[in-house]
Amino acid sequence: MRAVFFDKDIPRVLITKFAARYANWLLFTGLNAVKYRTDLPDPELPADDWVRVRNIACGVCGTESSFFKATTGVNSAFEPIPGSRRTFLGHENVGEVVEVGAAVTDLKVGDRVTIRAYMAGCDTKGITPRCRYCEAGDYNFCLNYGADPPVKLPDTGAGLADSFIYPARGLAKIYPELTNDQAVMVEPSCVSIHAALRVPPEPGDKVLVMGCGTIGLGLVQALKIVQPDCEIWVLDRIRNKLEFALRLGADHVLEGDIYEATSRATGGSSVYVGMGKNKYFFGGFDKVYDCIGGNWSNHTAVRLLRARGTLAKIGHHMNAITYDESPVWWQELNLVGIDAHGMEEWEGRRLYTFDLAQEWIRDGRYSVDGFITHRFKLDDYKEALRLALKNPPDVVKIVIDCN
To answer: Which residues, 6 or more positions from 377, have their beta carbon under 8 angstroms from its beta carbon?
Structure first.
């Protein structure tokens, strides 16, 4: 098995953190905590409800970049949770089932699948009975995140590998009408769709999407599907991404001074300027969807909301941040976190986000055309990550060919 993984070796992790901050070139040497092995043994299925998948392709997302820079902080809620020495990377994948355990009934050899439950839990460790969240389909809230698996697991692999093994219930079957390129975009589309359904706009709402990467661009579409009668502004530094967002349904670009532009767009007050160019005004968007994450975006987003407006927190980093929380209590703002995907309520049905996303793509309601901009071979994963970290204007989604 050929696979990319994060090695939780503390000295190596510290070197990676140093390199990310002071010597970027070191990230692309053998000192990085992210490793690529081409000689891992192909593991046996550890239980009869597992399957083996041959990967076709896998997208690169911010999670891989975070591991490549070892950005998780000791102040993060993730840090005290016990985990495995190796974390296999890649979850925006499409692959073909090549082996099924005796107890698997809903998948067969030849089916195309993608990883649905990626974070550690009942559906990735094979824990039975499932906790109440996993049983309900909300696997991201699993109560067994830090629990040991019931059997000793071998190196399993994941999306950035030529193959991997997985519990069948942690995978989603790909619809036959979808191409492989569409299939590899299902997982990131699920994040955008889940965000729009967790924080749906009301008719007439004026909303802001901060960040026009893969998730922000998908969110523009999802918001218009959920509520066509909302008005969307988009914010990004890259002109061609803003133009892409307008083609996908955004109504306006937030240009110029962010505070002045927001006040004009929403009928707010004058913008007041204090020491150090500290700015604030009254009024703002009904909802802000932060697809960036970090100090600046949090600090800015809460200042662009009207009283009792809602911040949907989609972009994130795996460490603690600092921002001015005074608008949160002063204006009684609502803060809603978005953790990938799960189960949705849509038009009287309860279904996995993965099924809803595939329906929308299949039926032409939601487009992923033009999202994939760059492709690499698995052996060239470092060059893919080099491009992801550089993030030039023409990058939207990087896909790795795993064959």
So the answer is: 400, 401
Residues 285 and 323 in one domain: yes
The average pLDDT across 287-308 equals 97
| pLDDT given for residue 151 in this prediction | 87
Average pLDDT value for the chain: 95
Residues 325 and 234 placed together within one structural domain of the fold: yes
The pLDDT confidence band at residue 213, using thresholds 50, 70 and 90, is: very high
Give the pairing of strands 343-346 and 334-337. unpaired
pLDDT of residue 338: 96
Are 305 and 281 a contacting pair, CB within 8 Å? Answer: no
Instruction: Tell me which residue range forms the domain holding 263.
Output: 188-337
**Residue 138 in this model has a pLDDT that exceeds 90:** yes
Domain stops at, among 318, 337, 356: 337
Q: What's residue 96's pLDDT?
A: 98
